[in-house]
What we know:
This protein is an alpha/beta fold and 245 residues long. It is 36% helix and 16% strand.
Amino acid sequence: xxxLIIIQARFSSTRLPGKVLLKLSGKPMxxxxxxxxxxxxxxxxxxxxxxxxxxxxxxxxxxxxEGINCYRGPEQDVLKRFVELAxxxxxxxxxxxxxxxxxxxxxFIAQALAAYKKQKLDYITIKQAPIGVGGEIVSLKALQRxxxxxxxxxxxxxxxxxxxxxxxxxxxxxxxxxESFFQQPAIRLTVDEEADLALMREIYKQLYxxGEIVSLKxxxxxxKQEESLLLLNKHIxxxxxxxxx
Length: 245
């Protein structure tokens, strides 16, 4: 079964415009995420899915420059964007991550994918890990069902709500990191606002080394040693239905 990694990205963020291309240690945030996702075992293709909105052209230009697959679809109906891309590329399993999570953990994604396949699921998500390091894995069939049955705007914009709101229709599972050290859901490692970006830049400043991805274990050790860093974005409330990580 063909496995697609699809990174959802847009340039016109309301809270932090252009955030996916803002720099961390001299490279765009999206670049760092792509390097991390390239390490996911048993995936077949990696795509960035953005919209047809002209405002998202910088993402398309970035992909062209870096030789990354890019697809443009509906701006608000992101679910349809995913289905169109998966059908076009004949992807049966979709790994969904978002472009504002530059510390998405490839080992968690790989282990969740293994559990998804072993248990023959329609959907699996990563739980109990820090916000922003996980992702979702879902079948194309489940997304197609969502597209035909999910009529509410948020179900289309956020891709998977119809699936996890209807457990009676789908076989579902959760992956929880086996090491308790990584079970820290109160820690926020996503980028929605300036305060998130400030924390992420400090993490990358201290831990990023050329040719390597930042170790999540090192991140959590750093935050344990320098607890004041956690105060940078502690006040930010997580948006509803951001179910990735």
